[in-house]
Design brief:
This is Nitrous oxide reductase accessory protein NosL. It comes from Comamonas nitrativorans. Pfam families: NosL. The protein contains four helices and seven strands; from the N terminus they run ββααββββαβα. Strand 1 (28-32) and strand 2 (37-40) form a beta hairpin. The chain has one domain (20-138). It has helices spanning 43-51, 53-56, 110-120, 132-138; strands at residues 28-32, 37-40, 65-76, 79-83, 88-91, 106-107, 123-126.
């Protein structure tokens, strides 16, 4: 019941309303204790959700979440899921997420995150280091800028 799931075509991100299936290389998910799942268009949207679960999923709390997953940016085809709490995130790179703004590419291995930084810049953060300050730096003020397709790899 807590294994990662494929993103359904019609799934919508509860934070921004985008379709995570269109951005599989950035997708994330939160699975609740009762098996219900929310899919997100990016790790940034997942962290925004975790910062205020009740706002984006009325009647639920962070304590109701069994596990969260993010897509490993080192293996996007086919997508490889990694537990969000175990992933390494790159902050401050030139990789633009689905909103055509900065994001948090996620990696299962710290070495892969370091290799990404050599190409794209940024610093590695653990799950616990992605805090409100980091979120404020990444959230696009005044709304969202949607893109057709932007890959983290490269």
């Amino acid at each position: 019941m807590t294994d990662p799931r494929p993103v359904p075509d019609g799934a919508r991100c509860p934070v921004c309303g985008m379709y995570p299936g269109r951005f599989a290389e950035w997708a994330a998910q939160a699975i609740f204790n009762d098996g219900y799942v929310h899919f997100f268009d990016s790790p940034l949207s997942l962290f925004t959700f975790l910062d205020d679960v009740e706002r984006f999923s009325p009647g639920r709390t962070a304590r109701d979440i069994a596990v969260c997953y993010v897509t490993d940016s080192a293996q996007i085809a086919p997508p490889a899921w990694v537990a969000a709490a175990d992933a390494f995130y790159v902050h401050g790179s030139n990789a633009l997420g689905p909103m055509r703004s900065g994001n948090l590419p996620a990696f299962a291995e710290q070495a892969a995150a370091q290799a990404f930084i050599q190409r794209r810049g940024g610093v590695v953060l653990s799950f616990a280091q992605v805090d409100a300050v980091v979120l404020r730096q990444l959230v696009v003020p005044g709304g969202h800028q949607h893109s057709a397709h932007v890959a983290a790899s490269g």
